[in-house]
Design brief:
Strand order of the largest sheet: 1-5-4-3-2-6-7-8
Radius of gyration: 15 Å
Order of helices and strands: EHEEEEHEEEEH
Structural class: mainly beta
Strand content: 35-45%
Largest sheet: 8 strands, antiparallel, barrel
Number of strands: 9
Length: 162
C-alpha cells in the first residue's frame, strides 16, 4: 500500500515565484462517493498538462494517508470529468521546485471559484522529517479539511474566505 505524507500551508507572499519556474495547469474532478467505507475514500480524476491520473485516497491519519494513483488516457479523464464530476472541479496551476534535502515544494495557484487561494505542499518520507520553512510560507492547514481539494470542489474558497 502506498502512503502519502504531506504537509500543507497557506502562502504568505510571492517570495516563492523566483524559484518556481513554469507551472503545470491541472483540472481535477471529484466523484460523488458513497461507496466502500465510512467516511468514503476520495476518488479523483486529474489532467495535469498532457497526462491524466485516477487517484484513490484514504482517510487521513495526521499528515499521512493511503494513496493509489494510476495513469490513464487523457481522453478517458476528460470523459470522467464530464460524466461523473459535474461542478466538483478544481482548476489550478502547480509550480514544483526544490525544497532542499531531496524534497520539493508544490505551490498551487487556484482559479475560478477558488481564485485568490495559494497553498504550498511538501511530501515527506516520514512524518517527523524536518524541512526548511521559507519566509513565504504561511499558516499550516494540514489538519484543516476545508483546504483539501476535494472540499474546495464542494465548497469553493470564494464562498467562505475571510
Amino acid at each position: 500500500m502506498a502512503t502519502e505524507i504531506e504537509r500543507k500551508f497557506l502562502v504568505a507572499n510571492d517570495g516563492w515565484r523566483a524559484a518556481a519556474g513554469r507551472g503545470v495547469r491541472m483540472v481535477q474532478g471529484y466523484f460523488e462517493s458513497g461507496i466502500c467505507t465510512v467516511p468514503p475514500p476520495t476518488l479523483r480524476v486529474r489532467i495535469a498538462g498532457e497526462r491524466a491520473f485516477l487517484t484513490v485516497k484514504g482517510r487521513p491519519s495526521g499528515v499521512s494517508r493511503s494513496e493509489f494513483e494510476y495513469e490513464i488516457p487523457v481522453a478517458d479523464a476528460e470523459a470522467m470529468l464530464l460524466e461523473f464530476c459535474g461542478t466538483r472541479i478544481v482548476e489550478k496551476i502547480r509550480y514544483t521546485f526544490p525544497a532542499g534535502d531531496g524534497l520539493f515544494w508544490e505551490v498551487d495557484e487556484y482559479f475560478k471559484l477558488n481564485a485568490g487561494l495559494f497553498t504550498a505542499e511538501i511530501e515527506l518520507p516520514a512524518e517527523e522529517t524536518a524541512f526548511v520553512r521559507p519566509d513565504w510560507l504561511g499558516a499550516e492547514v494540514s489538519g484543516n479539511p476545508r483546504y483539501t481539494n476535494g472540499a474546495l470542489s464542494r465548497n469553493p474558497y470564494t464562498l467562505w474566505r475571510d
